């Protein structure tokens, strides 16, 4: 065991991401001149302000410990290449650091990806850090010292729920989304240690601003949400591709609990402040996009009102000790919501936002090999995006999946079905 300062052991909601070393990337596609020294200084300021990012993980025989690191800020990797290859040149190892910054340049086009370990930060947490990174960068470019408030080590969701008197309910828990992470092909990627990371490809369905606005209008008029409509489109697509009736599908998705408990939890106060919800289509919800979307939205409201969703993280140890999931009808997705445009100096603009999720081989056997891959929903620059991180051997199927998603989300089709 290390002689460095041990912060604490990982909680079950965090440990599930340590065995396969799950990392999540948040990437801005930029055009213009990037000031690398300013970016390095901004990254240093953020890592110093977020102490969990400057730590590392060490095994202790039962799980992993969060341990302070004695070195400086993790290095930024900078390579010339295709910015779509978000992690080109990355050196990633949870035994050294839990954050990385990857820069891939092609002339004036650049991809800058903040990579965080899923054990210490979920999307809400990491996106807050990403926003501060670009705010610091902008201040430094303008000759001002970066102003980043120091953060405490984030708490585990189990402790945050306990302090709010949220208790585990009896009965069958919903499918635990964290146990089903990072669908990836068995191809070599960047990595240090016994095994390399597995790098998936990414397929994407991205709507125009006009179509996204029309979809938002449909959601408002029909009593649902854009997320409900996107989720319904995913279900309809999976039913067709898997050749299963809708009633044999089970849609499981993560729910940010920060504003669903009292007192609310700050963006960076916890590591993975996520609950989970299930939706199974029934005859009552029908087989239309709007009907399914309403069913998903109504089910979430009911689950939150009863407190079922809020307590789902407390079931993770039970599910982790049980048999791995094998149901062919499970569909998994996560929604990161609306991604804010970062504050940038003149001469640099952001064109797009991309995601990436990677992991090492799953030794515990809890990673469900669902054919749809890892699905991440987000909205950036008023454009709905559904990204699917998938094994290379399913590339042809993903093209069909994207075409079907686009067809189901076409506003003209949705309006006709509303």
UniProtKB/TrEMBL annotation:
Keywords tagged on the record? Acyltransferase, Lipid biosynthesis, Lipid metabolism, Transferase
All copies of domain Phthiocerol/phthiodiolone dimycocerosyl transferase C-terminal, residue ranges: 201-389
Under the GO molecular function aspect, what terms does this record hold?
A: acyltransferase activity
State the superkingdom. Answer: Bacteria
UniProt catalytic activity: 2 a mycocerosyl-[mycocerosic acid synthase] + a phenolphthiocerol = a dimycocerosyl phenolphthiocerol + 2 holo-[mycocerosic acid synthase]; 2 a mycocerosyl-[mycocerosic acid synthase] + a phthiocerol = a dimycocerosyl phthiocerol + 2 holo-[mycocerosic acid synthase]; 2 a mycocerosyl-[mycocerosic acid synthase] + a phthiodiolone = a dimycocerosyl phthiodiolone + 2 holo-[mycocerosic acid synthase]
EC? 2.3.1.282
Classification via InterPro entries: CAT-like_dom_sf, PapA_C
Q: What class of enzyme is it?
A: transferase
Q: Which family does it belong to?
A: Belongs to the acyltransferase PapA5 family.
Descriptive protein name: Phthiocerol/phthiodiolone dimycocerosyl transferase
Which organism is this protein's natural source? Nocardia tenerifensis
Upper lineage is: Bacteria, Bacillati, Actinomycetota, Actinomycetes, Mycobacteriales
């Amino acid at each position: 065991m290390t002689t460095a300062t041990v912060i604490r052991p990982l909680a079950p909601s965090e440990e599930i991401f340590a065995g396969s070393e799950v990392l999540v990337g948040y990437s801005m596609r930029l055009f213009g001149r990037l000031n690398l020294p300013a970016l390095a200084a901004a990254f240093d300021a953020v890592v110093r302000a977020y102490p969990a990012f400057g730590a590392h993980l060490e095994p202790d025989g039962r799980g992993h410990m969060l341990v302070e690191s004695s070195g400086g800020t993790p290095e930024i990797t900078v390579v010339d290449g295709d910015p779509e290859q978000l992690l080109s040149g990355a050196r990633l190892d949870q035994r050294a650091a839990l954050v990385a910054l990857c820069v891939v340049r092609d002339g004036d086009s650049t991809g800058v990806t903040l990579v965080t370990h899923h054990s210490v930060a979920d999307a809400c947490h990491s996106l807050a850090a990403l926003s501060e990174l670009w705010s610091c960068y902008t201040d430094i470019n303008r000759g001002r010292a970066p102003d980043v408030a120091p953060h405490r080590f984030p708490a585990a969701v189990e402790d945050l729920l306990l302090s709010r008197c949220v208790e585990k309910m009896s009965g069958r828990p919903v499918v635990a989304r964290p146990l089903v992470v990072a669908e990836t092909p068995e191809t070599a990627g960047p990595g240090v240690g016994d095994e390399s990371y597995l790098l998936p490809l990414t397929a994407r369905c991205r709507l125009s601003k006009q179509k996204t606005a029309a979809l938002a209008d449909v959601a408002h008029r029909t009593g649902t949400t854009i997320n409900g409509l996107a989720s319904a489109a995913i279900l309809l697509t999976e039913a067709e591709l898997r050749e299963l009736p809708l009633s044999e599908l089970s849609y499981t998705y993560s729910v940010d609990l920060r504003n669903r408990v009292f007192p609310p939890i700050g963006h960076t106060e916890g590591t993975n402040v996520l609950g989970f919800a299930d939706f199974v289509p029934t005859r009552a919800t029908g087989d239309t996009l709007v009907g399914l979307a309403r069913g998903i939205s109504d089910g979430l409201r009911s689950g939150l009102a009863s407190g079922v969703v809020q307590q789902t993280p407390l079931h993770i140890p039970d599910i982790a000790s049980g048999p791995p999931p094998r149901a062919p009808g499970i569909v998994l997705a996560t929604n990161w919501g609306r991604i804010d445009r970062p504050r940038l100096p003149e001469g640099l603009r952001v064109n797009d936002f991309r995601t990436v999720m990677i992991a090492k081989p799953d030794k515990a056997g809890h990673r469900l090999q669902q054919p749809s891959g890892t699905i991440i929903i987000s909205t950036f620059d008023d454009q709905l995006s559904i990204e699917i991180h998938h094994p290379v051997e399913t590339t042809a199927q993903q093209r069909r999946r994207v075409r079907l998603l686009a067809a189901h989300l076409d506003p003209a089709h949705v309006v006709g079905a509303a």
